[in-house]
Amino acid sequence: MNYFFVFCKDDLMLERQDDGTYTIPLQEEPPTEVKPWTTILNVTPLDGIEVKAYSIDLPPSSILSPSSFLPHPSSLTPTYEMCPLRQSYYKLPYPLYLKAGKCAELLYWDRNTKFCGVCGGQMRFHTDISKRCEMCGKEVWPQLATAVIVLIRRGDDEILLARGRNFRRNFYGLIAGFVETGETLEEAVRREVMEETGLTIKNIRYFDSQPWPYPSGLMVGFTADYEGGDLHVQREELKKAGWFHRTNLPNLPEKLSIARRLIDDWLGQDAGI
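The structure corresponding to this sequence follows.
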């Protein structure tokens, strides 16, 4: 049996079970028609079960494989539906959501490494997580974009929250940014805070990290204390920012994010993961 993580653009195929919960298709053969040119990736097994991942170009209702209509263990036809990867967090068991993220990252990497960056030759899979140029032999592996995110405290009851220009929803989050070449994670935290807010911070402490497959990120979370400076918002990155008391917080990030886990930890709440 194999878990099949099937993606159509940014959506993931889920199987709805009889009790209304969701899972990933678990079967011998792919749940959709597979073209001769479809690349099916082998991904690290989950709890001893093989994991496969591939992409389709059309909604699955139009390309379900004949095996999808064979008798289901429950004597019912499997019910498939597509769900954005982010929203699958709220439907799938957490280990399956994490594995879905890894599959999405590997498929993204496969799409974007068709040709060698040195000589332009065709890249072929060498192992499950590496490719080798068939002309010059250059080998590549999946790349991660590392970012830092920090919860800044002022006293016991206030934190700094900001509304980013790239936020799609009306909520406030934490200061975050990508790590630059040649700097430590802590240096990246200080730099991002200074660039986006004009503030200095102290007592930087590691909190936790989180894969962030949108598309290929690793979020590294920190806490810190306000040290000094007046708040000056970097308009290129943020719409607004301010200090918020724990009894008067704005709309917060979704539970799936490490930003929310940082905030919930500060509030003394269970982040639900």
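The helical segments are 85-88, 94-111, 185-197, 258-267.
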